[in-house]
Specification:
By secondary structure, this protein is of the alpha+beta class. The chain contains twelve helices and eight strands. The strands form three sheets. Strands 1-2-4-3 form a four-stranded mixed beta sheet, with helices on both faces. Strands 5-6 form a two-stranded antiparallel sheet. It has a two-stranded antiparallel ribbon with strand order 7-8.
Length: about 400
């Protein structure tokens, strides 16, 4: 496992540096174009380095908080959803994390989940209300194990960095190109800005224009390639924790069937979710611009793990489904010959019908938003909003006076 984490860190660092080099080249050519070849490129690199440093510091110290805030996620207590907390605690023990992640819920019906944070000691798991209402225990455990694996494999910090770097490159390129367009810019106007002659300046200007167009594309391709591999690795690590590939496979199928938009998601945060939250009806998930591998492919890999739930079992299933000999998992991990047996598949056969789904979803959303629930002896459940300040409430059915419990501190 240590080798897998180290390999993941190396790949993350390479990704981060590659995107940084793209940003520096962009700064060099834009600086040379606007300020001339005598020091203009160097000044552009300086400003690019300054931008890189600022966004990196923001990502490290506040990236997790920003993402949770943008996603409109609310931290919850165990009373809101005891089963979710129990599963997170189980997966924390199974993955040997030093601390139980904070748990957040997004008040949306579209099922999805993500993990964020800068380290296993400072991390969070976030799920939507729709996910909790739609999945049974085994499926929810599979999703949580997947997200805990992202934390265990040290994915979260570096993917946050990469996402911020990608956003920065896109913004710099957009500002530059829009400035040329709306400012009436032309390549000819930059020919004579350097003492080295117009031809050299024209080359710099053309290079800046080409790089401004290509840089966001190259950065996206780097980001997408690494993101896809990380999803496969998180699947492999997750089923190793649960010893039940069918749980995650079934959950992914339910998430694939979803046709609801996740309003809290955007292009900057999409890569963090377990499935692409921006997919539209009819969209091909195998599209080159997707941050995630096709769900149908991930499900087939999981269901080909008939001999065990270890890394070698996932690697063999991966090669069988993909028809490739590519080593997704480091050889040192595969050579350990670890045997992980699949647990009894009869542990959970529960299903959730539409009536229970709607009721559970409504109750969960109310609970997250501070509602209290009072169960009267007559069988009626009173749902009390957070604006109700009295300590007692009268049952409208039987007239009994019930005490209002203390509010959950969210």
């Amino acid at each position: 496992m240590w080798e897998l984490i180290q390999s993941n860190k190396r790949k993350s660092l390479i990704l981060f540096l590659a995107m940084g080099i793209i940003l520096l080249l962009l700064g060099y050519f834009i600086g040379g174009m606007f300020l001339g070849t005598n020091g203009g490129g160097e000044l552009g690199v300086f400003f690019a380095l300054l931008i890189w440093a600022v966004v990196s510091l923001v990502s490290y110290f506040a990236g997790s908080s920003i993402m949770l805030s943008v996603s409109r996620a609310k931290e919850v207590t165990k009373e809101v959803h005891p089963q979710l907390f129990n599963i997170v605690e189980e997966m924390k023990i199974a993955s040997a994390l030093p601390k139980i992640p904070k748990i957040f819920i997004i008040n949306e019906e579209a099922p999805n989940a993500f993990a964020t944070g800068r380290s296993p000691e400072n991390c969070a798991v976030t799920v939507t209300a729709g996910l909790l209402s739609r999945l049974n225990r085994d499926e929810l455990q599979g999703v949580i194990a997947h997200e805990m694996s992202h934390i265990k494999n040290r994915d979260i910090l570096y993917m946050t960095f990469a996402g911020v770097m990608l956003g920065t490159i896109v913004i710099v390129s957009e500002v530059f190109l829009r400035g040329l367009w709306f400012g009436g810019g032309s390549l000819n106007r930059y020919k004579n800005r350097s003492s080295g002659g117009g031809s050299g300046q024209a080359v710099i200007a053309i290079a800046a224009l080409v790089l401004a167009i290509l840089a966001p594309i190259l950065a996206r391709l780097l980001y997408f390639a690494i993101s896809r591999k990380r999803e496969y690795l998180a699947d492999a690590s997750g089923v190793r924790l649960t010893r039940y590939p069918e749980g995650l496979a079934s959950a992914l199928e339910k998430l694939a069937d979803n046709r609801l938009d996740l309003r809290a998601a955007n292009k900057a945060t999409a890569g963090m979710y377990i499935v692409n939250p921006l997919k539209k009806k009819g969209m091909k998930l195998s599209d080159l611009t997707s941050t995630h591998p096709p769900i149908s492919e991930r499900v087939r890999i999981l269901r080909n793990m008939s001999q065990g739930a270890g890394y070698m079992d996932y690697q063999n299933a991966y090669m069988k489904v993909k028809h490739k000999t590519e080593r997704l998992i480091p050889n040192s991990v595969l050579d350990s010959n670890e045997k992980v047996t699949i647990r009894d598949t009869s542990v959970s056969k529960e299903t959730i019908d539409k009536k229970n789904y709607r009721r559970n979803l409504g109750d969960l959303v109310m609970n997250v938003n501070g509602y209290s629930f009072v169960h009267c002896v007559c069988g009626l459940t009173l749902k009390i909003p957070p604006t109700y300040k009295k300590s007692e409430i009268k049952c409208p059915r039987c007239g009994r006076i019930n005490k209002v419990p203390p509010r959950n501190k969210l």
